[in-house]
Amino acid sequence: MTLRRVPNWLVLLMPAIFVIAAVVLVPLLFSLYSSFTPYKLTRPSSLWRWIGTLNYQKILSDWHFWTAFGRTVLFLTIVLNVELIMGLGIALVINRITWGQRAIRTIIMFPMMFSPILVGFQFKFIFNDNIGLVNNTLQSLGVSDAAWPWLVDAKLAMFSIMFAEIWMSTSVFAILILAGLYAIPRDPLEAAEVDGCTAWQKFRHITLPFLMPFIFIAMTIRSLDVARAYDIVQIMTGGGPARRTEILWTMMSRTGYVDARMGLANAMGYVSILLSIVFTIYFFKKLSAARNELGMGG
Predict the structure, then answer these.
(1) Residue 186 located in a structural domain
(2) With b meaning 16 or more CB within 10 Å and e meaning fewer, what string describes 223-257?
(3) CATH number at residue 282
(4) Which in 3, 31, 32, 278 has the greatest CB count within 10 A?
(5) What is the pLDDT of residues 167-208, one digit of tens each?
């Protein structure tokens, strides 16, 4: 008997399969295994000690973890809604501009081209207590006599982080919604004008329903990004003050690399994945429903 010849397409895919297995599959399986061990970076031998679901039990009873979990959900909810409202407004304004529209579209994409680390350092300087642009501006205008502790006060620090995240990623919503505005058929809008509909009625009953699939696509993309937010938070506050801005991924980083409890950190990671899955499923169902309402379902 002779071995059947390996298909050419499989031969071509083998390098990609090996690379994906090396950089994705193997680390994924390793982190999953280590989440069932008391693995510490300072004690490599602890990797081979099996403790079952003990790490997950610790997480479920850890008040600090659930506080960070709730803060992450709050952070995600506020950021997504503000980005949606601002992105929708920007897209509607750009859609009405008749001159220089290409240049404006290019300009609004600039923030999303910056690295989150660079954005974090940028806003850490802007909100600095002593030399920050915000405090200097407020004091120059006479709005405030003293410097505001933007990155020290818990509430102001969370606001500063949200502001940086919104500044960086609102353009994602604006670009996708703008694409939806370009794709809207003209016939329904012209018919509505003939029937005497107001601008609000046309937006509410024609434009917005047609934009909903694009909005939910943007929501899905951004929910995955925000749920994994780390860079900006770590650079601007490091989770402080006193863990008041700590979210899931900064907590995992501290647990794994500062406390060296990598097994527990990996367990936190797999629990945190549930947050991304829940939001993804929710927005995907909304997307499917919106597509079905427009007769686009298949």
Answers:
(1) yes
(2) bebbbbbbbbbbbbbebbeebbbbbbbbbbbbbbe
(3) 1.10.3720.10
(4) 31
(5) 999 999 999 999 999 988 888 888 888 888 888 999 998 899
